[in-house]
Amino acid sequence: MQVLDTLALMIYSVYMNPIQRQLLELADTIDLGSVSYYRLSKTLGINHPYKVKFALDQLEKNGLIIKNYSTGKITKVNDKTKFSGLISIPYYGEVNCGVALSLADDVIQGYLRVSPSVIKHGNLSKLFALKAVGDSMNMARISGDNVDNGDYIIAEKIDRYQVDNGDYIISIIQGAANLKRIIIDKVEKRVLLFSESSRDYPPIVISELDADDESSYMPIARAVEIIKGVRL
What's the CA gap between 124 and 121, in Å, rounded? Predict the structure, then answer.
């Protein structure tokens, strides 16, 4: 997994635009979060601060920098990156653990703030949080925990070709976010998405012929951690 992450960053670095490349080089010498967009634009000879903000957003989205939303500090990601203080994980809303009903909007609704020891798995730069709705995964074991209604699921972004057989995958199914265990059935040339529940839920069946149709099915993340009991 670490090799794939490194390869993905190398590929992205080839295609990043000049502003992103300048900011990434500057991040070796200063904390970009300590400097205003306006000052960065003047330093780099960029004609509008908005271009700096957009470039930083793209670098964060692609896992090359991490912004601590508590302190504003921006850290360039590398193999020796260390994290201290609270980690702010983007929270995107709900994921359905039954029928795919909760709409998946790519809009950050807030940040789940946790101490570093809470997160034991995954690449921190690719993590985000969702809240579980439903009981269809209450017998699952994700890093040793099941998934009850209202639990927070910590997920790691992946591309559709990083899915491994048996992973707990968050998929977008016809515009709705859904959590299931994936079984890749090579004999019948299909993908099966299973519930693991105290109740009997039928699987979701995706033919290999339709697996590349992003309008109906698109795996976006692997569930790596469950934060339980965070309810009043």
Answer: 8
Does residue 41 form part of some domain? yes
DSSP letters along 134-197, please?
Answer: SSTTTT--BTTB---TTPEEEEEE--GGG--TT-EEEEEETTEEEEEEEEEETTTTEEEEE---
> Does residue 153 share a domain with residue 123?
yes
Q: Which run of H or E residues covers position 92?
A: strand 87-96
Flag whether 133 is in a domain.
Answer: yes
Q: Is residue 82 one of the residues assigned to a domain?
A: no
Q: For the whole model, what pTM was predicted?
A: 0.64
The DSSP 8-state label assigned to residue 202 in this structure reads P
- Tell me the Cα Rg of the chain: 19
Does 2 score more than 50 pLDDT? no
Report pLDDT digits (tens) over 41-64. 998 899 888 999 998 888 877 777
184 beta partners: 191
Is 14 within the bounds of a domain? yes
Mean pLDDT of 163-185: 90
